[in-house]
Amino acid sequence: MGNAMVTDVDLVHEAQSGNVGSLGLLLARHQADMRAVALSILGCGPDAEDALQEAVLIALRRIGDLRDPAALAPWLRAIVRNSCRMQLRATTPIPVEDVEALVFPRGEPDLEEMLDGHALRDWVWHALDELSPRLRLVTMLRYFTAATAYEHIAQLCDVPVGTVRSRLSQARAKLSEALLTTASLTHDDVAIQERRRRREAEDTLRAARCGSFAEALTDLCSPAVEVTTMKRKRIQGIDWLLRTMDRDLDAGVQQNSANVVIGRDVVIWENSLINPPDDRFDCPPVVIWVNFLQADRVREIRLFHPHRDENVPCRCCHGRR
After folding, report:
1. Torsion angle defined by CA atoms of residues 194, 195, 197 and 202, in that order, rounded to the nearest 10 degrees
2. Cα separation of 210 and 177, whole Å?
3. How far apart are CA 213 and CA 98, in angstroms?
4. Residue 233, SS3?
């Protein structure tokens, strides 16, 4: 049966059951209609293309939330309209919760869980690997971590905010194209690599709590590893990490692995910071480690608090250089 004879309803059901090819066909089939909506709101130019690519990525992640498959076309148009509104507002967070046509439960699963549930993980990571290292990093931060604001990404990448916007625009276009052109291909299973990197993060943080952090970091990192602190100071070697972790633990602050995002040459850890009760030095809830790899060892680590209030002192940042 030809693709033209398969209805959208059939394709939605297949896509929601994990058929990546059906989802790719749906997005390709409706791309012209989605572009028309973007052009009608933003006019011809890069903003309309950015909104379209953002909408494609949102639809990819949210196809499982479409309750009425027959309403696919208006659902996609609503996503595009809201992406366009976010472009007009020049707002930094990802425009997911603002999509009016969707009803999302509070405490929704993280992106990794949604990708696993929809059998999209391998497809997405294959498309991400098609990006250059610079574009891949901003995409991973924007769509897969808590550091979604352009200002946060700029700090982690050590580039101006305008460069982040430009790289994300390029990345969205290339990623959307890669997703649509590779939907029917067979992709390597990244689950083994994900499990390995997640276990590596958990073991390293557990070693810190058990007094063997130095050994764990020595195994993880190259001897010349460079660490960029929360205050943007660059330090050679692991000594600063050891001292900082010791002070945190002495103060009753622990790091637990909450999320691990993998790429070809970078692994991002999102660690929950667990504060002792009734402590006036209240640490932010999350610290991000961006680990750059070389020959499968970490050559550079950049640390960042995406939710830190600069006016509130915390033990993991207060008074440290």
Report:
1. 140
2. 46
3. 42
4. coil
Give the single-character DSSP code of 93. Answer: S
Which tokens sit at 143?
């769509």
Q: Which CATH architecture has domain 191-304?
A: Roll (3.10)
Domain boundaries, the chain: 3-182, 191-304
Q: What is the pTM of this model?
A: 0.70
Distance (Å, whole) CA 54 – CA 42? 14
Q: Is 29 helix (H, G, I), strand (E, B) or coil?
A: helix
Distance CA 55, CA 47 (A): 12
Q: State how far Cα 122 lies from the chain centre.
A: 15
The sign of the CA dihedral 148, 151, 152, 157 is positive
For 161-178, the pLDDT digits (tens) are: 999 988 988 888 787 777
The structure tokens listed for 248 are 């945190």
Which of 267, 269, 240, 235 lies closest to 255, judged by CA? 269
Higher model confidence: residue 315 or residue 11?
11
> Which burial class, exposed, middle or buried, applies to 282 when counting CB atoms under 10 A from its CB (0-12, 13-18, 19+)?
middle
